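In this supplementary section we document a worked example of the pipeline. Step one takes a protein sequence of length 291 as its only input; no multiple sequence alignment statistics are reported here. Step two produces a three-dimensional model, which step three serialises into structure tokens for compact storage. The input and output of this example are shown verbatim.
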Amino acid sequence: MPARPIDGKQTAAAYRERVAADVAAFTRRTGVTPHLAAVVVGDNPASAVYVRNKQRACEKAGIGSSLHALPASASQEELLSLVQGLNADPAVHGILVQLPLPEQMDERAVLDAVAPLKDVDCFHPENVGLLSQGRPRFAPCTPAGVMELLAAAEVPTAGRRAVVLGRSEIVGKPMAMLLLARGADATVTVCHSRTRDLAAVCREADVLVAAIGRAKFVTAEMVRPGAAVIDVGINRLPESEGGGLCGDVDFDAVNEVAGALTPVPGGVGPMTVSVLLRNTLTAAELQTQGK
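The serialised model returned by step three reads:
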């Protein structure tokens, strides 16, 4: 029997309706419109699409947005100057620096330069530290989106074995922290390229989160029958393989084994943007309160 689909589009639509209602109530109460500033360096086509989608989502939710673009030849000093200007602008509540950055820039230094109260991606070490202590200021967008999908699909996590495939700062590590946190209460294993018997470890999972960045890496043999599989990856296939997008999971094969499965596209992606909207509202609330 095919896996039960976990519909990211439907879950995101309902989530965004709640965010839009909360934004409207906040604006009526305070007279303040939450505002997200997106920073893009260079002309990466994928980055342009991502930012455009985020701006459209902001508009639908009643959140203001602005785009600040620099050429690929820009220096790190120019980018840091732009970020500092946005930090100082009281009309800007959230700052999104679109990754990747050009080679001449120190990505970590740029992300660290974003004011913690405006760090709606939850990349700043202060916000990561709060997350690790179980008192997050902002929810990291993609991992929090995964948690929303699991909740909407009624996938239990308490007392269950969760395996996170990937240890990135953006997804893998914060994903493990959210699954481990009180309320989720999973027993979490994080796997990576040096993990021994990787397939065997993955087969132990009741919930398997694939965030390794390799097309169709997770095969049916790596999945416990009936497990919930969340595919965070998004990869473009070469033309020799038909082109198009696919995740880190071999969807057709795993679909015959898993109990629940997210598609790519249409799974985690829509929820990532939705949580970004919520974080922008939270940032506006915190800054309005003077915290």
